[in-house]
Amino acid sequence: MGVALLSTHRLIWRDQKNSECCIAIPLSQVVFFEEQAAGIGKSAKIIVHLHPVPANKESGPYQTSKFPYIKLSFREHGQIEFFRRLSEVMAMKQWERMAVSEPGRTNSGLQAGRVRAVGIVGIERKLEEKRKETDKNISEAFEDLSKLIEKAKEMVELSKSIANKIKDKQGDITEDETIRFKSYLLSMGIANPVTRETHGSGTQYHMQLANQLAQILQTPLEEHGGIMSLTEVYCLVNRARGMELLSPEDLVNACKMFEARKLPLRLRIFDSGVMVVELQSYNEEEMITSALDSVSEKGSLTAEEFAKLVGISVLLAKERLLMAEKIGRLCRDDSVEGLRFYPNLFLTQN
Prior knowledge:
By secondary structure, this protein is α+β, with helices and mostly antiparallel strands. Helix content is 52%, strand content 18%.
């Protein structure tokens, strides 16, 4: 009498009275297996048919046997569950996977490897290998980040060098070459961004930052019709500053100093609370007239349609339409379909 144990690689029988008495059969030696139903006075059995004894078989309780099979007799039931589990294990053939992954080992080495691969030791080995792989990936990631930071510093130094050359040789460099150099600087970002480390903090920092913002925003504002939302300005400036990012609070405080510093820009806050940066030369009457002409031409427009038509953001398009409405040039239809603006016919028709 004993207990039958099943692993992914072996079929084990252990004596119930003497636990040190144990017989193990590799599942790789199994040819096929079958059930034998219980009869009168006979218990149900599972018959496991085996391959012939190999020449290099290790010593065991019996060296030879006239029977090419073993019988497992189940006196207290359980044969159905055991047969199902045995079928599943034999279908997976885990021992073949190990043989493929370690082709250089001998049969005895494979058998020893199977014993070591299962249980707590095998799990610990897998966890250790996974930990080493994770450490390796983290180290490579930090190496790449360090290289990126070094390259960024090199690019900043290069842009500073070009900027200094332009200043030193202002008379020797033609206007076309200057424009070309400045386009290179713009593609690389701001050469020498104003930071708290270089210009202190408080009012002095915001004054210097306002001067720099006026320099880098002049051209983009002209290209955008003289006005940009503060959100667009924030994205543009931080993209140019690279790693020296600017906080929203510092940007607002610097923009508030445009007029005090007599710079060609100003910060404007609409009635809706929307904040924009615009050129001092920005002509509001021209923009209102342009909005009125577009609405009159199309018959009616929403803010989204007007933005697409003139190529500006929806936020600024809506503000232009609201300004035209405020002075009575447009009127609105606010319905479930949204806000739509129409020409004010009371001014144009009798």
